[in-house]
Amino acid sequence: MGCYNVMAVLVNERTSSSKELQDVLTRYGCIISVRLGLHKTGNACSEEGLIILQLCGSLEEIKALEDSLNSIKGVKAKSIELSAE
């Protein structure tokens, strides 16, 4: 199985959703190969950010992660499977 699944996670309410978001990411940590977090910095951290995940797992596990993330208020996740075929 190749690891050609990427998920983008848009977080609109970082402060209020961070604990639940971290809990979900920890629960699915075994299928997350790479996690990259992006947000504006400055005098104060932005309330919105983008997380990019590279995933190595079954399509069922990836779908379960996506559904769990989308159940969090202020979080929107979308996955894509890339293929050379």
UniProtKB/TrEMBL annotation:
Under Pfam families, the record lists: TM1266-like
Superkingdom of origin organism: Bacteria
Coiled coil residues, start to end: none
Q: Which Gene3D superfamilies match?
A: ACT-like. Chain A, domain 2
Indicate what this protein is called per its UniProt record: Iron-only hydrogenase system regulator
